[in-house]
Amino acid sequence: MPGKVRLSSEGDGRVAVVTLSNSAKFNAMSRAMWRELAEVFARIQASCEWRCVLLQGEGAHFCAGGDIAEYPDFRFDVERLRAFHEQDVWGGLSAVLNCDVPIVAAIQGHCMGAGVEIASCCDIRVAADGAKFGAPIAKLGFPMAPREAQLVARVAGEMTAREMLLEAAVLDAPEMKSRGFLHRVLAADVLHAHALERAGRIAALAPGAARMNKQTFRALKMAPALDGQAQEAIQLIASRSYDYAPAAEHREGIAAFLDKRRPNF
Predict the structure, then answer these.
(1) Backbone phi and psi for residue 179, each to the nearest 5 degrees, phi listed first
(2) What is the annotated signal peptide range for this record (predicted)?
(3) Across-strand partners of 170?
(4) pTM > 0.85: yes or no
């Protein structure tokens, strides 16, 4: 069955529960799921029904990354690759980032690539003690898209982002807590109850104040203005960000994963 992003309610209907559901692939994000993520969070943003969001993965994992089985359909063409990252992926991430309703992430199992990006959009992050975090896409022969890398570096820290992307490092939950990415690490069997309790506490507080606080945090992030030279440098990087689409190592990385063999770069 194809993956889905499901929306339900708990906590007397005041907590929106968003579930990444693609359990056969450890909740890897398909293109359709990125679009659904944007739609779900736009609905939450527009509604006065929910006061907090609990974001989780179905079953034993949060999100193992992107659905790599789809990649050969679009990743080797510059414009289709650009559309994937700038429209599908960033459309989903920006909808989460722009949501004024507080978001609690409950993370267990694999939290890789897209999972780290989605978790980075959340306000409170709690994880099971066995959760694993990383973005080992260097093994697949491609970099992280610029805005996605900026998001992870800002929230997880540049040191952590460099380690994940350049070394393909996978870090455990206690280590991510020590680096300030996680608020709490718990046993897996109490994770959902703890996350729901936190969401319930937030939902019991003034929803208008919560929305205003999130708007303030968002404005503070954008406050430092970039000078013209920095703007030009960023635009230049962005204009060339997806030129690697047809590269041999990109093709090899994807092919090796799908063939279940070690890539030959």
Answers:
(1) -95, 0
(2) none
(3) 134
(4) yes
Across the strands, what pairs with 16? 9, 53
Label residues 25-43 b or e (16+ Cβ within 10 Å = b).
Answer: bbbbbbbbbbbbbbebbee
Fill in the DSSP letter of residue 242: T
Question: What single string gives the DSSP state of each residue in 112-134?
Answer: ETHHHHHHHT-SEEEEETT-EEE
Architecture of the domain whose range is 4-189: Alpha-Beta Complex (3.90)
Q: Which residues pair with 6 in a beta bridge?
A: 19
pLDDT of residue 44 exceeding 80, the answer is yes
- pLDDT tens track for 189-219: 999 999 999 999 999 999 999 998 998 888 7
What pLDDT score does 66 carry? 97
Report the range out of 63-77, 209-223, 230-244 with the highest average pLDDT: 63-77
Residues 150 and 61: their CA atoms lie apart, in Å, by: 24
User: Tens of pLDDT along 159-176?
Assistant: 999 999 999 999 999 999
Number of neighbouring beta carbons within 10 Å of residue 237: 10
Query: Using one digit for the tens of pLDDT, what is the confidence trace for 112-136?
Result: 999 999 999 999 999 999 999 999 9
Whole-angstrom distance, CA of residue 106 vs CA of residue 193: 10
Cα(57)–Cα(6) distance, integer angstroms: 10
What does the alpha-carbon distance between residue 241 and residue 31 come to, in Å, rounded to a whole number?
Answer: 19
Task: Please name the residue ranges forming H helices in 75-206.
Answer: 78-83, 90-97, 114-120, 146-156, 158-167, 173-178, 188-203
Q: CB atoms < 10 A from the CB of 229, how many?
A: 8
